[in-house]
Write a structure and sequence with these properties.
Elements lengths: L6 E6 L5 H12 L2 E4 H14 L7 H8 L4 E5 L5 E5 L2 E2 L1 H4 L2 H10 L3 H14 L5 E5 L2 H5 L5 E6 L2 H14 L6 H17 L12 E4 L5 H14 L3
Parallel strand pairs: 1-6, 1-7, 2-6, 7-8
Antiparallel strand pairs: 3-4, 4-5
Helix pairs in contact: 1-10, 2-5, 2-6, 5-9, 8-9
The structure holds cytidine-5'-diphosphate.
Cytidine-5'-diphosphate binds next to α2, α5 and α9.
Length: about 230
């Protein structure tokens, strides 16, 4: 068995359960979980808070030099995203950030900035990263690549439930519209569009429970040396 472990890439559409899977799998395998979407969300939150014009290349370049993102485990075991030392977990999951994150994620300077950090974080292997370009751009040689999909209506229902549980007031129609828009922007952007890597295993989890999904992918991961 490879003592170093492998890199597991989980890509797919918005709200199709990538982070649920990645978190559970990380726990089951003793791996590190890296939520790359949270990194794009943290940059977007920073730009919104600073009222930055992200169409201006110079402003973006300058802003990126003052952004530091890291993940810290809280007492309850959950992983929170920190921006310049501040816990921004609850701010980055709002609809306001969800509505701007895909446009921000089209900016090549932002992608280069974050991809470099993701590659450094994954260097030590035994790592699961979820996102849109992990199997294609960030770790094209990942030991296991999963491409998750689920029925769009089911995805909207799942995300609505999550947001309501967090106390946000939002409707199913708003959530569905945001997911459709993000999927469109993410799949059609020029730099690192959301694509299924040729060697990815596609899993449609519309009718799979999180437990069934986990069992299936854990077996796959172990077969690949995890
Ligand atoms: O959890 P959800 O599916 O809502 O999205 P996320 O993983 O938090 O990602 C938020 C957004 O960040 C995506 O819609 C993409 O625009 C962008 N993203 C990206 O471009 N590349 C990644 N590797 C991860 C996220």
């Amino acid at each position: 068995m490879n003592k170093e472990g492998i890199i597991i890439a989980v890509d797919g559409f918005s709200a199709c359960g990538k982070s649920t899977l990645a978190k559970q799998l990380a726990l089951a395998l003793g791996y590190t979980y890296i939520d790359t979407g949270a990194m794009y969300r943290a940059v977007t939150y920073f730009f919104l808070r600073e009222q930055l014009d992200w169409n201006d290349e110079k402003s973006v370049q300058e802003a990126l030099t003052s952004i530091q993102i890291d993940f810290r485990r809280e007492e309850d075991g959950s992983l929170h995203t920190y921006l310049n030392g501040e816990d921004v977990e609850k701010y980055i999951r709002t609809m306001e950030v969800s509505e701007s994150v895909s446009p921000v994620a089209t900016i090549s300077a932002v992608r280069r900035f974050l991809v470099k950090q993701q590659q450094a974080l994954g260097e030590k292997k035994s790592c699961i990263l979820d996102g849109r370009d992990i199997g294609t751009i960030v770790f094209p040689k990942a030991g296991l690549k999963i491409f998750l999909t689920a029925d769009p209506e089911e995805r909207a229902r799942r995300r609505l439930k999550e947001l309501l549980e967090k106390g946000q007031s939002v409707s199913l129609a708003e959530v569905a519209k945001n997911l459709t828009e993000r999927d469109h922007i993410d799949s059609t952007r020029e730099d690192s569009p959301l694509r299924q890597a040729e060697d990815a295993v596609i899993i449609d989890n519309t009718v799979l429970s999180p437990e069934e999904q986990l069992a299936m992918i854990k077996t796959l991961a172990e077969m690949r040396g995890a």
